[in-house]
Amino acid sequence: MSATPTRGQVLKLYKQFMKNARQFNDYNFREYFIRRARIGFKENKDVHDSQKLNTLFKEAQRDLGVLKRQSVLSQMYTFDKLVVEPLIKSHGHSRGL
């Protein structure tokens, strides 16, 4: 039986989820995966059973692998920006109308 994941390992896994979710070019997919990561980790923050923690950790590692592959595929395609996406400011400031 493997050891229970430490808090540091779980935080590292969460950061990897967020990093890979942010790499999606499509706004809707990006926001969906960021939201799902936050909700999923938050729902399980009070789990203390070591067997359940091991299961959740292994499932999350598997899901991270899928997310990484999908984010790489997403980067192969470009999408037009949506109205709801923030614009990247090229000059460091923007002018109000």
From TrEMBL:
Residues 9-65 form the Complex 1 LYR protein domain. It comes from the Eukaryota. GO terms for molecular function: cysteine desulfurase activity; molecular adaptor activity. InterPro entries: Complex1_LYR_dom, Complex1_LYR_LYRM4, ISC_assembly_LYR. GO terms for biological process: iron-sulfur cluster assembly. Belongs to the complex I LYR family. This is Complex 1 LYR protein domain-containing protein. It comes from Torulaspora delbrueckii. The gene is TDEL0H02260.
